[in-house]
Amino acid sequence: MKNDEPFTDGAVETEERRGGLSRRSILLTIGGVATLAAAPEAAAQPISERPLAASTGPVRLVVNGRQHELDLDPRRSLLDVLRETLDLTGTKKGCNQGACGACTVLLNGRRIVSCLTLAAMHEGAEIKTIEGLETNGELHPLQTAFVEHDGLQCGFCTPGQIISGIGCIAEGHAGTLDEISFWMSGNICRCGAYPGIVAAVADAAKRA
Amino acid sequence: MLPFTLEKVTSVQDAIAAASSGRRFIAGGTTLIDLMREEVEQPDHLIDINMLPLSEIRIDGSDLVIGALARMADVAAHPDVQRLHPLIAESLIEGASPQLRNMASIGGNLLQRVRCPYFRMHDAPCNKRTPNSGCAAIDGLNAGHAILGTSNHCIATHPSDLAVVLVALDATMLVRGPRGERSFPVEELFRLPGDTPHLEHTLLPGELILAVRVPGGFYSRRARYLKVRDRASYEFALVSAAAALDVGDGVIRQVRLAVGGVGTRPWRLRTVEEALIGKAPDRKIFETAARLALEGARPLSGNHYKLELLPRTIVRALEMTGEAA
């Protein structure tokens, strides 16, 4: 059993409301890496008069070093493509509106929120997710630091925190604890594990 | 999200040719995608302009020219921006989050939509979202709303920090549309809500922002952007102030002042500026002048506190320009 249930998924709800056929049910039917073009959704009897969006044509994404060629509905966020099409469920869907940072990934080396960008806009982009951090079974130093400093409680925000922390260190914004707090403020932790998170980023920055 | 088609363009000419009613340019997408998901924005076609060569940040004579597609983070970190216009860098870093600043463009920042909660709430009336449906904020939760430039149809503040600074600095927009290029003050980009709050800016159909031009001046030393908000980062302003002072022979020779969080558009304070010219820069003078900012203010049930917070923020920002020198 894969842990692939979304925390919240507005897109799925919307499609269910429209026609009783959810994106997830389509995915489960097709299985594995699915091509999600307009065709299956056409069966969903959309209430909109608007013609269904055509696919954008093949979009190439390099995710954690692996190249994928995907046929995408232009509506799909990078987050949804990572989680639902590429089965990389380490990147989390928290608010789905850019406010919480749980979906943070590195896009061409820069930290972004993957919920507020369309996958089809990133032809040829290199994306790094939490799944791509380890090297030959060794955790990334910041992952190790999160373990050592207890930088989490429930863990839901942790992949976003760690990716964001890597960005924060790479940008040179991890000089002091205050600086780290400010430059990590795009990542919300509702458990309040902030002291451990900030300590972990500070520690990893020193070792970097 | 409603279905739409997506087109990538590689030249400004193609972008302008592709523009028409019901379509939107998309750059960073951080506002637009969110609002499309909420079905507040319902374009049927998106024109992806990210391939256009509009990301350059350059010096032109004494002016700073910022390409419309330059990202907030890149502008804030640019050495020339930090050196010549610390206000711009400061206002950008005080806005959004690091992730969003890596995504959001300067053009999009200026055109971002309001953060009034009723704008996104389909169950509530909102004249911006649905013209002539009413305004839920006037008698609703309005602690974050404007006291200046409001109308009986809309009281939402313009949310951009950068816009406040650009208005203070007399920056100009460079835009191009089907009828060619034109340039006008950033201040004139923003409309007052009046009885048409759904019309927010003065761009003509098909016009694309190419760049923002900021004239050089005395802003590199005594200039500060002060943002007062509910938390210390990643939050919109309750009140903000961009202040730049030029002091010589013990008196204020020039001053630029604009405020955010209180106006339905970025709010330049020329009467306050005039009251400061020729005076010695001290707290008493600042306090007297700052009261003039309240001219025409219309507080509502939840935002009375801004009548006190606005002048105090202005005074503090003016004082901080001294600390920066």
Question: Could you give the count of β-strands of chain A?
Answer: 5
Strand content of chain B: 15-25%
Shape of chain B: globular
Unreliable spans of chain A are 1-47
Strand order of the largest sheet of chain B: 4-5-8-6-7
- Biggest interchain interface, per-side counts: A-B, 44 and 29 residues
SS element count, helices of chain A? 8
Q: Rg of chain B to the nearest angstrom?
A: 19 Å
How many strands in all of chain B?
12
Tell me, what's the shape of chain A?
Answer: elongated
Percent helix of chain B: 25-40%
**Biggest sheet overview of chain A:** 5 strands, mixed
- Radius of gyration from the alpha-carbon trace of chain A, in angstroms: 18 Å
Oligomeric form:
heterodimer
- Secondary structure category of chain B: alpha+beta
What labels would you give this structure?
heterodimer; A: 208 residues; alpha+beta; five-stranded mixed β-sheet; 5 strands; 35% helix; disordered N terminus; B: 325 residues; five-stranded antiparallel β-sheet
